[in-house]
């Protein structure tokens, strides 16, 4: 079993770290708000006072943080993990930051540390059950060395060389936010045309976007959107996708409009709800 230093105990980080502990790994965990490490400590982990302390003596370090700024501080700050990782350790970045930011983080790490990007697809239920889909970028040898460990968290899929997992996640999330906006616009049109929501959702369940409709239908019908994937994070990912496209001269039409809907929803106070709450914003159910 491995000695793991874990950075980040948000909604996703807690169940993922707890799964590693249950599988027999020794996990030392750090979070900017130290109180949030309690659920991991109660499962058998150790709390660290700093990112450096969390990864000191670790064979594998894993970060699961909200955005690039939080990650940059945790890796490169005065008490950052980059100062404490030992030669031969493996660092796995599981946040969604995109390939360009990943390259910047790599410069904060010793050359003797192997790096994988491994963002995940799924939300809290999948994190709890170990059914995340994990997109891995890096050298094949590094991937093979930690594949069993990643398998505790979900199903890893090797995407290619460094940055490939981060790139794949951006492309996938662009599709997800576009589908959610499309569902919202379909329902808004249905409202205007007098189509009962139940009927429209029944039909859409059997359409190409059926998986999304089935996963979000209960939230839509009750008008309650507890966060599985926070709208603020979906907006962050949409912005990352647009930035990556712009840097590479790729013209996108759907994604800017979907991002605009998410911007409006965040401005309306929905940032901390599930990203499917954008549907009610599009339907005019929020100011």
Which percent bin holds the helix content?
Answer: 40-55%
Described by the principal axes of the CA atoms, the overall outline is globular
* Quantity of strands, as a count: 9
Terminal-residue CA separation: 52 Å
Q: SSE order in H/E notation?
A: EHEHEHEHEHEEHEHEHHHHHH
Structural class: alpha/beta
Q: Overview of this structure, please?
A:
It contains 13 helices and nine strands. The chain has helices at residues 13-22, 38-42, 51-55, 68-76, 98-106, 124-129, 140-151, 164-192, 197-205, 210-222, 231-247, 254-270, 278-282, and strands at residues 3-7, 26-30, 46-47, 60-63, 90-93, 114-117, 120-121, 132-137, 154-160.
Brief synopsis:
The protein is α/β, with parallel strands linked by helices and 287 residues long. The protein has helices at residues 13-22, 38-42, 51-55, 68-76, 98-106, 124-129, 140-151, 164-192, 197-205, 210-222, 231-247, 254-270, 278-282, and strands at residues 3-7, 26-30, 46-47, 60-63, 90-93, 114-117, 120-121, 132-137, 154-160.
């Amino acid at each position: 079993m491995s000695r793991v230093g874990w950075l980040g105990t948000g909604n996703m980080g807690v169940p993922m770290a707890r799964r590693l502990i249950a599988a027999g790994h020794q996990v030392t965990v750090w979070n900017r708000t130290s109180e949030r490490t309690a659920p991991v400590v109660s499962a058998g982990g150790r709390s660290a006072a700093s990112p450096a302390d969390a990864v000191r003596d670790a064979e594998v370090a894993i970060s699961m943080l909200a955005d690039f700024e939080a990650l940059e501080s945790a890796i490169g700050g005065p008490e950052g993990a980059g100062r404490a990782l030992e030669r031969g350790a493996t660092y796995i970045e599981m946040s969604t930051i995109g390939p360009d930011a990943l390259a910047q983080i790599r410069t904060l790490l010793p050359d003797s540390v192997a790096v994988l990007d491994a963002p995940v697809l799924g939300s809290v239920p999948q994190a709890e059950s170990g059914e995340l889909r994990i997109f891995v970028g890096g050298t094949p040898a590094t991937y093979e060395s930690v594949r069993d460990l990643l398998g505790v968290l979900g199903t890893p899929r090797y995407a290619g060389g460094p940055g490939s997992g981060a790139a794949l996640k951006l492309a996938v999330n662009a599709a997800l936010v576009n589908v959610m906006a499309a569902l919202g616009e379909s329902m808004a049109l249905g409202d205007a045309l007098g189509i009962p929501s139940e009927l429209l959702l029944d039909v859409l369940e059997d359409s190409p976007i059926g998986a999304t409709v089935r996963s979000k239908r209960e939230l839509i019908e009750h008008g309650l959107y507890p966060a599985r994937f926070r709208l603020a994070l979906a907006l962050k990912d949409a912005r990352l996708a647009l930035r990556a496209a712009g840097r590479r001269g790729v013209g996108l039409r759907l994604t800017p409009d979907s991002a605009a809907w998410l911007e409006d929803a965040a401005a309306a106070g929905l940032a901390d709800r599930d990203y499917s709450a954008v549907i009610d914003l599009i339907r005019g159910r929020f100011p």
